[in-house]
Structure formats: structure tokens, C-alpha cells
Amino acid sequence: PIGKVRGTEGQWWHQRREELLALGREHGAAFVYDRSTLQSRAEALQALPGIDAVFYALKANWHPDILRLFHDQGLGFECVSQREVEHVLNILPDIDRRRILFTPNFAPRSEYAWALQQGIVLTLDNLYPLKAWPNLFTGREIFIRIDTGHGRGHHDKVRTAGVHSKFGVPMFELDELESLVESSGVTVIGLHAHAGSGVFNVDNWASIGTTLATLARRLKSVRIVDLGGGLGVPERLGQPGIVLADFAAMIEALRAAYPGLALWIEPGRYLVAEAGVLLAQVTQLKGKGEVHYIGVATGMNSLIRPALYGAHHEILNLSRLEEAPTEIVNVVGPICESGDVLGAERLLPPSEEGDVLLIATAGAYGRAMSSCYNLREPAREFMI
Ligand code: LLP
């Protein structure tokens, strides 16, 4: 039967189909996360020989069970707001503070002061804090986020380097950085860069590593290089994913070239995207001339990625995996915007009210970016 949806055979949700159907029917819409997939993703990254520490970027998904699981597996956490740090501390009160990175962007002074007080590793991503609040950092050890100049990723909106991006200290400000570091009495122990999200070519991290390691030789106090996150996952059937063996080889090469530097990474999507699906029950069917619509119980209020980035999420009718896909349809949610399309021109079997559709790779930036738009609650979350 699975042959009708070729290319999905290896996905965890085939084994959990009955459980997913039951959740979909009971709740109408649900994010479901698979613990064993989460676990194996974390294990795979933890097993990379040349990486000294993996920090999970919890902006992708801050479900408490996911944080507990990753903590048990030895991961740290990368946070971008005080609330994210507090969330980690609430769920894992005994966590070693050194396992939390705080990488804010244009945050108010109070968040920096708070993080330093908590003993959390802080990354500055521009020179303003050092210029405007030098006393805050005197005697402290911090990281600096560098804009290496090359933004990468699946969409313009997620490329976080280059002159058009608001992130990082540009290379042409390095002299100024050095003198501010000296005058404020801060010690830079780490350099960080994140070029973007949804990247498949390992040259991205090779070039970040080379740039930062070269810079580390100049700023003598640097002991750690954080290569950022951004590891992509395939979104379309048959699309090749990142090859971890290539990633490992690239890391080994960096280690050999720059011995003595610790190498860190901070992925979000890679750890959680494929471990999550969004289930949504069919509410109504409609034909408008040649165009067919399948309406489902939730839309851009749960998953905004298609509307925001034109992102692709595979969609299957979980109630009818055995049936031949013969109709081209638009899968739409109940939100009052024409952009509320979860999938345009998809090939699906003829569907009926009550069927459960599965929207794949929804574990990252799904619920995390959801909203109550139209006062429609986003789908609830379940861990199985
Ligand atoms: N580190 C930093 C400093 C970041 O800004 C990000 C993501 C990450 C790590 C984790 O990136 P990842 O490994 O998940 O690609 N909402 C977009 C993605 C935005 C990512 C923002 N920063 C999406 O749904 O594709």
C-alpha cells in the first residue's frame, strides 16, 4: 500500500499510523512528535567525532519533553531571548549554566545584564553593547558573533549574513572590535557565526570555521569556535539531505588545520523537523471551476512556513494511503487570508470530510511560529 506514496517508506509515521489517525480524529488538528526519531537525531550529532558540544537551537521547538530528552542526551541549548533561557531553567532547574548559550539580537540592556548575572554564556552580535554599556562587560568572558559576509539558506528571509542582514559584527569592524574589547576589559573566549537556515552544502561550515579560526589567532583569548546551525533537512520526496559523513569529514579537516580550538554547533531544524508532523482533519471540499480545494481544520495559524517562505511540506492523506492519488488539489486552512494554503497543486486520492491529512517535516518552526490569528488556536502538541 505504501507504494502509492513512493519515497516515504522509511518515515516513522508509517509504523505509527493507527496512533496518528486516532489523534487526528480526536483533536481535529495536532502536532505529533516521535521520541525515537528525536533521540536518533541527537545521537547522530553527538557521535560526530570532531564536535566538542552540540547546542539545540530551541527556537525551532521548545516543547518541554523535547528539551528534557535532549538534555538527557547531553545537548546544551541555544537561546535568543530571556524568556527562552527562563523556559530552559524552569524545565531543567539543575542544568549546568554552561550548557546554555544566549545569543540575543537587538535585545534590551536588561537581558544582557540578567544573563551575565545568571552565569550564562553570552554572545554579542554587534558593537553597540560594548560601546554603550562597557561597564556591564568588564571582567566578563563573552562570545562575539561575526558576520562572515556570506548568507545562505532556503529563503532570503532566513539568510543571516551579508550587508543586508541585521546580524553579526562585519569583518570591516574588526579593528574597532579589538579596541573596544581592550577598553572595556572584556575577554572574548569564543567566536560565533550563523550564515542561515536550511543549508545542505558543508562548505558553508568549512568556510565559517576557517574565517573564525583565522580570526581566533588574531584575538588571542579565543578558545571556542561556534559554527552555528542551519543543517538542512529534505522537504520534498526524493530530495537528498545533508550527508553527515561529509559534515564529519569537514569538521575533522578543520580540527586538523586549527588544533587547540573547541568546535561547537547549534542546530535546530536538523534535530526536530522530521520528527514532527502536523495532522489536520478534512473539514470541507470545494471545486471552483477547474480548481479543487480540500479544507482542513488548521492552517497558517499552525504552520506559517508555506505562506511566509513558500516552503514545501509533503502532504498525504493518512486515511487513504492505499488509494491511488488521482486528484490535483489545493490544501487550505480555515484562516481568512488567501495565503492560507498549506500545499498548492498536490496530488492526493479523492478525500472525504473527516479524513486525516498528514503534513510532513512540521517538527521545526511549526508550533514555534504559530499564532492565534482569527482567534483559532494552533494545533495542540503530542509526543509519542
Ligand atoms: N543559531 C542561530 C544564531 C540562529 O539564528 C538559528 C536560526 C539557528 C542557530 C538554528 O538554525 P537551524 O539549524 O534551525 O536552521 N523560521 C525559519 C528558520 C529561521 C531560523 C532562524 N535562526 C524556517 O522556518 O525555516
Automatic annotation (TrEMBL):
Q: Which residues carry this modification: N6-(pyridoxal phosphate)lysine?
A: 59
**Catalytic residues, chain numbering:** 336
Membrane-crossing residues?
A: none
Q: Which family does it belong to?
A: Belongs to the Orn/Lys/Arg decarboxylase class-II family.
Protein name stated in the entry: aspartate kinase
Q: What is the lineage of its organism?
A: Bacteria, Pseudomonadati, Pseudomonadota, Gammaproteobacteria, Steroidobacterales
Tell me the stretch of the parent sequence this chain holds: 490 to 873 of 873
